[in-house]
Every structure is written in C-alpha cells, then in structure tokens.
Amino acid sequence: MAANFQHPFQCFRFVPRPNTNLLIGSAGSKLYSYSAETGERLAVWPQEVASTNANAVDADSGSEQGPPGKKRKVSASETQTNEKPAWSNIPILTTTTNGEYIVALTAEDKCVRVFQLQEDGSFTQLSERAMPKRPSAITLTSDDTTILCGDKFGDVYSLPLIPSDKLPVITKALRSATLSHPAATNLTVHTKGNRRALEQQLRLASQGKKDEKAPGPAFEHTILLGHVSLLTDMAYVSLPVDANKKRSYILTADRDEHIRVSRGPPHAHVIENYCLGHTAFISQLCVPHWAPEYLVSGGGDNYLLVWKWAEGRILQKVSLVDESSQATEVAVHGIWATSLGDLRVILVALHGSSRLQCFTLEADGTLKAQSPIQLSGNALALTPIEKDNTILVSVDTIRQPDTTQEWRASASSPSTLIEAFHIKSTTDTLEWEPATASVTKKINSTGTDEVPATTEEKQRKELNDSLYNLGHLRKRKGEDE
Amino acid sequence: MSQPPPKRQKRAEYRKQVAEAVGDESAPVGKVKLPKKKFYRQRAHANPFSDHQLNYPLSPAHMDWASHFPAFVNPDPAQTNLIGTRKLLKDVEVVDIGCGFGGLLVGLAGLLPETLMVGMEIRVAVLDYLTTRIQALRMQQQHQQKTQSQSQSQPPSSTSTPAPAPTTPAADDAETPSDAPAPPDPNTSTALVPGGYQNISAIRSNTMKFFPNFFNKHQLSKIFICFPDPHFKARKHKARIISETLNAEYAYALRPGGLLYTITDVEEYHHWILRHFRDETAVEGGENEGPTVKELFERVSEEELEKDECVQVMREATEEGKKVTRNNGNKYVAVFRRKQDPEWA
Known about the structure:
- With 481 residues, chain A is mainly beta.
- Chain A has helices spanning 76-81, 192-206, 438-446, 457-467, and strands at 5-6, 9-15, 22-27, 30-35, 41-45, 92-95, 101-106, 111-117, 123-130, 135-140, 146-151, 155-160, 222-226, 231-242, 245-254, 258-263, 271-276, 282-286, 294-299, 303-308, 313-319, 332-340, 343-350, 355-361, 367-374, 379-385, 390-395, 418-423, 432-434, 450-451.
- Chain B is of the alpha/beta class.
- Chain A: Pathway: tRNA modification; N(7)-methylguanine-tRNA biosynthesis.
C-alpha cells in the first residue's frame, strides 16, 4: 500500500524570540510551531483533541457579522472542536517584529486571526475578524500596532492588531449608505420599463420594506485606499528623511500592472507616484529591510523589475527565463530578500518550479545572477536564518517537481517538507551547500497532516488550486463587446 | 445563420463610409458631413470591472499623443517619447471622464483654443462616433479657414491659432462651401471656431483602472465628470465613478488649484458627490475620524461658478444636459478645487 502524502508548508517562518527561537508554518488547514534549535514540534492549531480550548479569548468579535449573502458562519466553538474546520488552507502568515503575535488568514471564511505565540510555542487566538472580501495581502505597520489588509476588491483596510474595547462607529461606511427610498425619480427615468420598475420600488419603500443590507464588519476598521482591481501584494516601508525623522509609505500592487506608492496612514489617500513597467499582473513586491529604497517586483512577466520606488524609476529589468525557452509563460511565486554575511541576497521562486533563482543586490541597486539552487520539489515558502547564514525552504512534497498539477506516483518516507541550505564560506560569488541540520530532519520526520494517496481527482484539483492559483490572474484575450 | 442582422450591417457600412470620407483629405468640403448618432448607438452601461480589450500606454511617457493632436506636435523630430512617437509642444490639461458623444469637448474647444483636451469613453461605438465627429469638424474648419483667408486678405488673428495640418491640398475648394446644408447643431455650424477643433481628441479607456497610465502627477488643470452613470442600486455603488478611493486618483492627476467639475440630474448622486468631496455646508456632528481624501478638495462657491464659462458649457452643451432640459429635469452642479497636499505627518 502506498504511503500517504504530507501537506506541504504553504507558509513557513523563522520567528526570533528573546528566549527560544521558533519556527512556525501553515500546512493544510493547520498552524504548526517548532523549536528552532531542535526541530521538535511544539504545538498545532486548531488542536486535534476535541476538548474546548479555554484559551480562545474574544473569539467571536466579528464572526457573527458575516458578509452579506454568504452562507457560512463560523462560530468560535465550531472552529475549536469540529474535526473539519471551515477553511482548507492558511495562505497568509505574518508576525510582529518581536515574534510575540502572529497574524494568519484562514482562506474560505476570510478571517484575519491574531494569535499570541506563547513561550512554549502554543497558539492563543486573541481575535478573529471576518473581512467583507477575501484578503489577498496582509502586512503590519512598522510599529506593530496596525494590520493592513488588502482584498481582492482592491481595497486596503487598517485594523488595530489588538482590537480596543470601544465599539466602532459604523456610520463611516460611505459606500454602503442605505436609502429609504429609490434614488431615481420621474425626472431621471424615462423609458416605460424603467418607470414601471420605479413605481414598484416606490410602492415597496412606502410599505416600509427595507433592503436586507448588512452593514460593514462590526469591528474597528478604516479604509485607507483602493484600486479598481484585484490587489495582489502590499508592502509597508519607512524611509529615513534625516537623522531622526522617518516617512512611511504603503506600496500596493494589482492585477492591472500598477504599483501604487501612497503615504502611510493617516494620509494614505495622498498618492506619491506610480511604478509602471509591468505588462502582466504583479504578484510579488519585495522591499529588503536592509535597503528600503529598492523594490524588486515580479508577476506574470518573464522578468523582474528593480525600482528606486520613491522616484518610480526602473533601475533594471532582470530576465527570469533562458533565452531558449522564451515561449513558456511564467509567474513569480515568491521573492525573498536576506543579508547573509556580507552578501545581500535576493531569492526568487517561479510558480511551480523546483529551481530557486539567486541574485545578489549590488551597491548600485542592480541584481547580479548567481548559481541557482535545485530543490527536490517546487519551492513554496522560504525563511532565512541570518545568524546561521542559512535558509530554510518549504518544498512541495505532493506534486511532481516543475508541475502544478501532476501528483507524484508515491510519497517518499519521510517526506522532504523542508530543505536547508547553508552559504559556502563567504566568497565573492554566492554558493550554497545543503545543510544537514538535525532541525529539518526532525521536522520532516514528524510530518504534518496526511493527504491520502488515494485522493480523488476533483479533490486533488482543489488542493492544487489552493497552492497554485496565480494562473487565474492572467487576463484572457478576446471577450469584449 | 451567419448573416449579420440588417440593422447592424447597415450601421457597419455607414460607419465605414463616414470614416473613409473623413479620412480623405482631398474631399470637397460639401462632402464632409458630420456622422449621425443613430448609427452609433450602444447600450448605456459598460462593466468597469471586466477586462475589456483596451489599449493603454505602459505609462504616461509611453503615450502616443502626436496622433491625437497633429497640430501641436513638436516641430523637432528628435523630441520623442519612450515608444518613439513625437512629443507635443504642450501636455494635455483637461480630461472629460465618460465623454459620451463629446458635446462638452466640442463646446469647450473654441472656449479654450490653446488647451489640449481629451475625452475618455469606455463604449466602443460611442468613441467611434466621437472620433469621426472630431475629424469631420477639423476638416470643415480647415476648409472654412481657407475660404476665409481667400476672401479676406487677412484672417482675424483670433482664428489663426494653431496652423492646420499642412497636408491639405489647396486646389479643390472651388465648390460653394458656406451654403452647404447647415446642420441644426450650433456647434457644427460653419462658423469659424478658434483652434479649429485641433485641441480636442478622444480615447477609449477604462478610467477607473487606467487613469494613471495616461497622466502624470499634477498634470491636469480640469477634470469633468458629467452625468455619470448613477448606478441606482446600492449593490452597484462600487461601480460609481466617484468614490473615496477613486477620488485619490483624481487628486493625484490634478494640480493644486485645478478644478474637478461634476454635474448630475440625480439628486441622490449629487449628495453622494458632496459626501465624497468636501462640503462645508453639511458638516456632520462629531466627525473626527481622521483625515480622508476629502482634505484634498474644497468646494468652489456659487459666485465663482457663475463666472466660469465651462460650467455653462457643461450645463447646456453636453448631450445628456440637453436631454435633461428636454425632459424638464434638474441639474446639480458641484465643482471642487484641489488643495495642496497636507504636510507630512
């Protein structure tokens, strides 16, 4: 009998902490935490045992107020005890700089969940807030007090990390201002059919029937900015102006090739400039924290762009494909920046590719290609451990390398969920060697949740799409008036 | 089955014919007729969220303005933009968002003969009409100018503004031009219009998505939003062209001191507009939610509007404005001035 597969880590992060460093990851519908020293698994959320979790404080804020017209409502008890949670994957996972709090997005119920990461690695959920539209990018402001959440309708909201007790004022939702009577009148509607519709509406209004229009979410939230497009990624950056002054910015990218540079809150409605240069959707923005004046962006184009983003100026266009294989469509899955030793490294993974492309960011802001890293499966997530000159890469254990749909014939045991690479003694050129760390060995042997090797085609496709969904962003040619 | 319906075929043939007639520089002036709207009808609504087959420049520096404003092309052929087309002597400064059949542009053309103005429209057929209309108007004006300069030794200085395209052949305006059947529309009469309609043009675009692809920061001095699609249903309000998030983009393109003109016949939409910009008269109690995009605009006073000729054009010359007058509807005007950006926090 074939061994079962393991859910790969969709997100994976090294969390430096004052006492013990941790590793956290999301695989399937669960969150996992590990000791960064030993690789021993410390906690899983939601807990497998069906006991009620006493830790869930304030778990219901917002969940009662589901968005209009959606059928699924998740109550706190359900999420803790049911065997099957209301979501199938956790696509976004981020932490505060001190590693104390974790912000995670559960996909199907659109909930932004804040956890406190305990000393023993366990997760305490502090709040869950159901957003009106599916969030597609979540980041924290540099003071770690505010969550910025961008959604597939192009809007960016700010939410306090820890919701305050005071009830929010709902009246500020300008957009959803409800009317007691129709806005059209006899003066604006002229055709026979429309007149009849208007009469009908007036009759309904006089009977006191109101549209069942749910107000916005019942928690504190402020709309900061919006694109008329699907928002794909976001970055919050602070640039020093002089010795003791900083200016903060929000960078937002969308499906319609725009990168917008806005001022940070509370002036996010002031657009400083646009970075225009992509010809397909943008999926990734990467601003290195050690060189915040630069931006590396990528998406459906077969190149990266390096920007001096505050000026909207392109510094370099970096090809991602060999000259020979120009024909294939590529999409950028992830861009990561890390400084290892003296080297400033940019790592790039293409969607459904087992090759990790490596670049170094030179002093003039250009990228220099270095030898790539070959993985045993598609790269999904990456986290650097800068003090060890090491990177940990989450690898897709289910799909064949370099495909997004074909499953492997059989699962290897133990699955290689995480691979570690160590930088070779810092020479001028960047070279990697596999690190045989006990940490990764331990994580891999412990495994995550199992995916049966007998999974049916339809469910396989669903699982594939939850990890590899960038294809939907590409515009189809043809349909028009 | 594959035969197109006769109506559509007739339209297509008509449009082709007119486009050819207008493109033919050597046609005698009597032949240059304005296109008829009935052959360019299209559903009044377009979904701004779908991917239309749109052509839009990568960035403002990639926009080919020279083909839109041939009379304003920089004479130095070395002056080109990033896609190698010629630069203009000046930038486009006025935009009509959702220009429809172009009544506003045609009305403004003579009023601001030295200002480049562009209309943006998402519906293909309507844009076709307007492009053909502008071409025809330009042709008529060129013929007019020639006959005038022949009859008078000196053309009046006000009309001699940008030189018409030099390609016009001088030979064949022997036919009587001025007694060609005068169309009823005063804008299309044979009178000479300052600028000869060389300063207006139209582009097909979805401004809700691609406005920043066309215009640089603070490039514009006026934006017009005339009789926007009201999207009556609350569920459709996201599709309105005025929203707190889109207003930030208008503020980006408008220079400080620039004006944003709005007119609508729907009272509720008028209040919506006022709510989304600044309205000093309706300050609601306890509004201390922090700065919003409203801080970038201030409403222009009624007295000032009375002196503004553009407001008059907006009320009377737009097609929609005429329709509202015909139906005895109300017109609600609100104009907002772009303020300076706030200081960095």
